[in-house]
Amino acid sequence: MSEELKRSPLHAVHEELGGRMVPFAGWEMPVMYGSILREHQAVREHAGIFDISHMGQLWASGPRAAAWLERMLTNRVAKLEVGRGQYTFLLNGAGGVIDDLILYRSGDEEFLLIVNAACIEADVAWLREHLDDGVELVDDSARWAAMAVQGPESAAVFAAVRPGDELPPRNGIARLGDGCVVCRTGYTGEDGFEFLAPAAEGERWFRGFVGAGAAACGLGARDSLRLEMGYPLNGSDLTPERTPLEAGLGFFVDLEKGDFSGREVLARQKQDGLAEKLCGLAYLDKGAPPRAHQPVVDEAGGVVGELSSGVLSPSLGKGIGMAYLPLALARPGTRLAVEVRGRRFPAEVVKKPFYKPAAKPA
Amino acid sequence: MNIPADLRYTKSHEWVRLEDGVATVGITDHAQAELTDVVFVELPELGRELDAGDPAAVVESVKAASDIYTPLAGEIVAANDAVEADPALINTDPYGEGWIFKVKVRDPAQLESLLDAAGYEGQIA
After folding, report:
1. What's the whole-number average pLDDT of chain B?
2. Contacts with B62 from chain A: Cβ below 8 Å
3. How high is the ipTM of this complex?
4. Taking the domain B8-106, which CATH number applies?
5. Where would I find the H helices in chain B?
6. Cβ contacts (< 8 Å) between B83 and chain A: which residues?
7. What's the CATH superfamily of A275-350?
């Protein structure tokens, strides 16, 4: 497919900073600015900034918005206080994942959904098809430049650039006086925030955060950082054929709250048990970098699954990955191997996260 | 971009230094800059007989794996264990300590089919 790639409102800054642009989910985005390893390390030790303008922003509002979202999403909307966010799933009727997203309650009757770039159209189509009277749904994605500042020094970066403003608490959301929005969330496991600015003002804020010490980081580091935390990537670790329970993310599914799309299948899975589960795998020794779609084999050499994600972990210095495996092989400590170009690299099932970042502020 | 005048090159970004019938092979400064951080190298087995253009080694960055082809036909007679232990040598010293393997060449005249420094420079311009 040679569809025209969309450009981020921050495109000019990426070119200026030497970003290496690649196609991603229909967008032209920086995969790195020079070194994935250095960018990764900057986030773990100091602060880094990612352009996330490709992600979608949907607003749902109205007197029936909360009740409607309760039926559309897996997590319990009723327990979400104003000013807070929660990780949640949009499922199809078979319980498969259409999208994983963060739902923020920005007002009593107003919600912001930050969704994956590749899923915006599918999400909006699904949500519109199931829309209730008394709910307004707006796809606001084109209006925003979005950036994520992540790392132990991210709060200091924010304070330097926005001296009059305060960061919301962890998982919180705040509207700032000038129309920008800040959320204390991220995809790296470090403290950090996601910042939305009207598209035309995005460059100025991105430059400001870089000037205050955040290293520009691309999708490469974003992927290695999220995988060290065991966070799933939609389209790889999450698919319409897999449920959140199989992905090991039942914590974000409330089966007791009443009906929602896919609930029946999930309830049955919970009762009958799962056939397969998304597991973390870590190499026992050095070896060729594990990557998505490489076979996972058991000690007898039989193929038992394939990696949905994999990377040579920059923080741990060894291969890590995730794979859907039969439940009998899902126990931590189970010896398996990853096959790369016909060679087998011994690995074992481990608990996620693979890497534990330093303690975060509450 | 560093392109030493005394080496020969391929379109697939290997360099060759032929001395006494043995060709030392690595990847160019341009290639290492494009790949960025090399995190893994798979070396060829000693004694393997290869034709020119056969894949001999694999160099991997965080994001991708790249085959390294032997520019000249012959037998693999050495492989650089140092780059296996410290793949970053390919980034820091691509024409020196970052060499990858050596081939005892079948036909030294094959060298003439490879690019010279000016030809390679034109190739990557």
Report:
1. 96
2. 36-37, 220, 224, 289, 311-312, 314
3. 0.88
4. 2.40.50.100
5. 29-35, 81-85, 89-92, 117-124
6. none
7. Aminomethyltransferase beta-barrel domains (2.40.30.110)
